């Protein structure tokens, strides 16, 4: 069964304290892995697409990496405005019509 | 990226009434849209896939007669929660596929907060 697991469930950091969020996945084949950011009371906002092991994508203080079993979202010198829930999702090969599987998310809180 | 809107953003209704939520793709056509439900501090749960011009495909455990989906045009899908009860209170989010880096992903609406009294 295709599955996505994110850890930790919640993470509290001091402003400027770098860290990483983990997304482990089990799929028969991977077409793509996505990272989203979700603010409270809002829909998820697309961040990155990763296709293959070794690939990296960056956006401001965020960098996403991918291996054959997991993805990391590295956050460098975070600011309070980076506080949000970060969702990882995968699109398995053979999945129909853009259907993707979400992990449970990591709630990130950055203290000033 | 693609823009998806939802209306209303928030609705409060009495138990037993029906509530309709609209999902629109603003700058692109979407033959497929997705409806999710999200409880506090939990991830998104896919409820159904909405298909333009045909019946929706529901996920296991989702009641078709309770959550009516209509995808009447290439830019509009609606979700009607029929005879709503307090346990239907939740955050409902729709999404539509779009290209991101050459691969289909999903772009999400802002969500609708439903509270059933």
Could you please describe the fold and organization of this structure?
The complex is a heterodimer of chains A (112) and B (117). By secondary structure, chain A is mainly β. Chain A has no helices and 11 strands. In chain A, strands 2, 4, 5, 9, 10 and 11 form a 6-stranded mixed sheet that branches. In chain A, a hairpin with a 3-residue loop joins β7 and β8. The model of chain A has no long low-confidence stretch (mean pLDDT 93). Chain B has 117 residues and is mainly beta. Helices cover 0% and strands 57% of the residues of chain B. Chain B is built from no helices and 11 strands. The termini of chain B are far apart. The mean pLDDT of chain B is 91.
**Overall geometric form of chain A:** globular
The unreliable regions of chain B are none
> How many strand segments of chain A?
11
Tally of individual helices of chain A: 0
Question: If you average the pLDDT of chain B, what whole number results?
Answer: 91
Strand content of chain A: over 45%
Low-confidence stretches of chain A: none
SSE topology string of chain A? EEEEEEEEEEE
Number of helices of chain B: 0
The chain-level mean pLDDT of chain A equals 93
What kind of sheet is the major sheet of chain B?
7 strands, mixed
Number of E strands of chain B: 11
Structural class of chain A: mainly beta
Q: Biggest interface in this structure?
A: A-B, 24 and 28 residues
- What form of chain B results from the Cα inertia axes? globular
The Cα radius of gyration of chain A reads 14 Å
